[in-house]
């Protein structure tokens, strides 16, 4: 017999009782962005066709995608309500629509969603040579010469996929990787899993964003470093070597037909906020990080117990 109390609502209760929880993690919701005021009242059906369709990229959604492309330096942008995990599936599906038997070269530290999407879609993948730094216990992103070596071994490849920045905060030299790949064969796509890099576009002190560095496609988890609600992300691309119709087709196949409009509104709001205040927001973040590093250096913050 189930003797669970019938009035327990575990997820709701847990969220309601978070109390004075201090966040050191994602989502990175920016405090001053505009927010939808009453989510229950405004949670309308996709049948409210006057808004247009997210999946078909029409109406207000098309407008929002277009504005985001302008702000993040892309030709085209689509919003994701399934993080970068979902965006990686869309991008890899697009490759299978374009090539009969695609092959990709991937960095060793690539997110599991890329490998799983490749397995599901029957895409052959080969690893790019990578090195490991034992001091930081971290895989180093591939260098341009590592990419070239791997291309020489597998010249029939259709795309090179790099994670940058990595989970450990290391950025690859995307502009040099783009040069190496395009010199080798301009049709080979450079795809950057930029899950951790949606803030890069708004600073001159940080590495360039993938779009600034000349990549063909970038997928970002805007909820990580970009200021929007959990689960949200963006796919950006340049049209020179990417067929937009195929990307839209892959997106239509994958995207939920009933997305949360609040998640989409959060992406739209963050785009507007970052356009106006992005440089200032990232600059202030860098200053805080420097200050924190300084305190750590001076040991004003005592090390955790057991550490010298
Ligand atoms: C490099 C990288 N790509 C993709 C993802 C998945 O992102 P999301 O949680 O937005 O689906 C992560 C998650 O940490 C990641 O580190």
Q: What does it look like?
A:
- The chain has a single domain, classed as 3-Layer(aba) Sandwich (Aspartate Aminotransferase, domain 2).
- With 308 residues, the chain is of the alpha/beta class.
- It is built from nine helices and nine strands.
- The N and C termini lie far apart (53 Å).
- Pyridoxal-5'-phosphate binds at residues 83-85, 111, 113, 163, 167, 193, 195, 221, 233.
- Pyridoxal-5'-phosphate is lined by residues 83-85, 111, 113, 163, 167, 193, 195, 221, 233.
Order of helices and strands: HHEHEHEEEHEHEEHEHH
User: CATH superfamily assignment?
Assistant: Type I PLP-dependent aspartate aminotransferase-like (Major domain)
- Count of DSSP strands: 9
- pLDDT averaged over residues: 93
CATH architecture: 3-Layer(aba) Sandwich
Portion in strands = 5-15%
Low-confidence stretches: none
Strand order of the largest sheet: 1-9-8-7-6-2-3
Net shape? globular
Number of domains: 1
Helix-strand category: alpha/beta
CATH class: Alpha Beta
Summary of the model, kept short:
This protein is 39% helix and 12% strand. It has helices at residues 10-16, 59-71, 83-98, 112-121, 144-153, 174-184, 222-225, 244-254, 261-298; strands spanning 76-80, 103-106, 124-127, 131-133, 138-140, 159-163, 189-193, 217-220, 233-237.
